[in-house]
Write a structure and sequence with these properties.
Structural class: mainly alpha
Helix content: 55-70%
Distance between the termini: 61 Å
Number of domains: 1
Radius of gyration: 24 Å
Shape: rod-shaped
Largest sheet: none
Number of strands: 0
Number of helices: 2
Amino acid sequence: MKGLDEGEYDIAFEQKIEAAKRKFFLISSESVAEGHPDKLADRISDAILDE
């Protein structure tokens, strides 16, 4: 197996780091109080989609 020179190692290492970063992601959500316009819009769209 051919060894990598220093520049090639850095590229390979960076590619592995980027691949590892893509395996993780952030999930966020928001919550609104009952009667909030967003909550009402969600209920209307859910009712339409459920038909």
